[in-house]
Design brief:
This protein is an alpha+beta fold. It is built from five helices and four strands. It has one domain: Glutaredoxin (3-Layer(aba) Sandwich). Helices cover 34% and strands 14% of the residues. Helix 1 links the parallel strand 1 and strand 2. It is globular and about 40 Å long.
Amino acid sequence: MTLPDDDSILLLQNPRCSKSRATKALLEERGVAFVERSYLDAPLSGEELEDLAQRIGRPVREWTRKGEDAFSETGLTDASDDQAWIDAIVANPILMERPIVVRGKRAVVARPPAHALTLLDE
């Protein structure tokens, strides 16, 4: 599976996360057509994570959930290279921040959910 290249909207989310549910509700309230991908059920590949980092425009370490128990087991530090962060998320998808909304060549971490609106107003 790859991330969309067209203008379609993809919601990368965890349905058990309140911010993911709120972002989904926001998109639905706006009447926006989108596709959902539960990244715990369908984890992103290393290639997809590299692509996503480009679309977000921020290093992977900035959208990694450092408070998760799995993070302490990774051995990652601020000195770790991007590939190490990507490898950690591939091995432990729970480490990816959520939700993330992708549209075309851009993506945003929708925390708070209103950040998703920046992609809708383009």
